[in-house]
Specification:
Layout: H1 2-6, H2 12-84, E1 87-91, E2 97-100, E3 106-109, E4 113-117, E5 126-137, E6 144-147, E7 151-155, E8 159-165, E9 168-175, E10 178-182, E11 187-190, E12 195-199, E13 202-206, H3 209-216, E14 222-229, H4 230-241, E15 244-246, E16 254-260, H5 265-274, E17 280-284, E18 287-290
Parallel strand pairs: 5-6, 15-18
Antiparallel strand pairs: 1-4, 2-3, 3-5, 4-5, 5-8, 6-7, 7-10, 8-9, 9-12, 10-11, 12-13, 14-16, 17-18
Keywords: Membrane, Transmembrane, Transmembrane helix
GO molecular function, one term: sigma factor antagonist activity
Pfam families: FecR (PF04773), FecR_C (PF16344)
Length: about 290
């Protein structure tokens, strides 16, 4: 036991030397550690600043992209709005009306007729949709087209009348030149005074001068008919005077005649019925029966 303990006992001189060495070793370690730490901090400082700068640039680029995207969406939105926003103008039953288009062209609408067009897109394409009957006075310029369910009429600068009601499609060129086409791509070119009518899905030029006059009579505030089915005549009366006429007891006839659109409705009925020895009776306000 004594020998073993003595192996770990140090003399005073040995202890002094040992602690001196430990103190020197500790002093070096602290200095080395501090220097190494300082070097590490210095080395990391630029690396830390650089990502901060890159993040700033990235944010600016991101904002630029977002701003460009927002501008693009806005432009596209405005373009779609201009393309598909439409103005609709109607002449109610029993009235006539006129409307001036953005280029100064004028449309005169017959009773119970409607047009629609895109006002903000007008400079890119002069296009009008029509249901009913209208007379057009078109200013010269880009192609002007009128579309209806049964056909299309294209002009550059002219005046013309279109009837596009139900299964009827008729076009009369008054001045200039128009090209008329139907859904089957059948086309005809009309010069001043020429008139085309859709018959059995085909556009046919008409040579009857009286029919041309009849078609434009409404522009002169007149009713004019030339061997016209009586059902069509009374349909015109219904639209113009905003009334209902019962024809269930009347056989089909063809009427030829002329009278002013300003006469009272019962006077108009009297004029028409007289030719066929027919009578009429007022059933209620705005409703008549012919027999």
């Amino acid at each position: 036991m004594t020998d073993k303990n003595n192996e770990h006992n140090l003399t005073p001189e040995q202890e002094k030397e040992l602690f001196s060495n430990l103190e020197l070793s500790y002093s070096r370690s602290k200095s080395d550690v501090w220097d190494a730490l300082q070097d590490k901090i210095d080395a990391q400082t630029p690396a830390t600043a650089k990502p901060t700068k890159n993040r700033g640039i990235g944010k600016r680029r991101q904002l630029t992209y977002l701003s460009a995207a927002a501008s693009l969406v806005l432009v596209l939105g405005l373009g779609l709005f201009a393309r598909f926003y439409t103005t609709q103008v109607s002449a109610a039953v029993g009235e006539l009306t006129s409307h001036t288009l953005p280029d100064g062209s004028i449309i005169h609408l017959n009773a119970a007729s409607t047009i629609a067009y895109a006002p903000y897109w007008w400079r890119f394409g002069r296009k009008v949709n029509l249901e009913g009957e209208a007379f057009f006075e078109v200013q010269k310029g880009k192609k002007f087209s009128v579309h209806s369910r049964l056909g299309t009429t294209q002009v550059l600068g002219t005046s013309f009348n279109i009837l596009a009601r139900g299964n009827a499609y008729e076009v009369l060129c008054k001045t200039g030149k128009v090209r008329v086409s139907n859904r089957q791509s059948n086309q005809v070119i009309l010069n001043p005074g020429e008139y085309a009518k859709l018959q059995a899905s085909e556009l046919v030029k008409q040579t009857d001068a009286q029919s041309k006059k009849t078609m434009l009579a409404w522009r002169l505030n007149k009713f004019m008919y030339n061997n016209t089915p009586l059902t069509k005549v009374f349909a015109d009366i219904e639209r113009h005077y905003n009334v209902k006429i019962d024809l269930s007891k009347v056989k089909e006839h063809h009427y030829t005649g002329l009278f002013k659109r300003s006469v009272p409705v019962e006077k108009a009925l009297q004029i028409i019925c007289y030719s066929f020895e027919l009578n009429f009776k007022k059933q209620s306000e705005g409703e008549y029966v012919v027999f």
